[in-house]
Amino acid sequence: MASSPRSAPMAQLGVLLANRGTLAGARVRDALAGSGLTMRSAFTLTQLADGPVNQQALIDLLGVDPSALVAVLNELEGLGLVSRQRDPADRRRHIVALTPDGTRALHAVDSVLNKTDDDLFATLSPTERAHLERLLAKVTDPGACG
């Protein structure tokens, strides 16, 4: 019985994506280090960009363990970037919002991450970058791209 041909070493898409993801993750972490933020804290700020969110909804949006979110929120609150207030409709819940400093930090993070993207994807045309973004969205959420 003939054996099936093997792909060339490191040619599997998952391996290539994991390898490039490691490189991209390191560059993003390095870029964020200058702002004193981690990827998790920066991503939390981005989830608050459209306005206050209750803490449980934020847990669901981020897909993190509640204790992990509490640690991130404690850090961000200590930096003066977010505030937590009791929900007037349900005193057991907290509403999380960006502070003015948090909004400024988010703009700075966006700028740093845009520069990092420009560096990472400098060899791609704008059309290729848009196509890659669509493909990655499709891989991570097959229902998102019909």
Automatic annotation (TrEMBL):
UniProt cross-references to InterPro entries, sorted A to Z: HTH_MarR-typ, MarR/SlyA-like, WH-like_DNA-bd_sf, WH_DNA-bd_sf
Family annotation (SMART domains): HTH_MARR
Domain HTH marR-type: start-end pairs: 10-141
SUPFAM superfamilies reported in the protein's UniProt record: Winged helix' DNA-binding domain
Molecular-function GO terms, alphabetical: DNA-binding transcription factor activity
Superkingdom classification of source: Bacteria
One Gene Ontology term from the biological process aspect of the record: response to stress
Protein name: HTH marR-type domain-containing protein
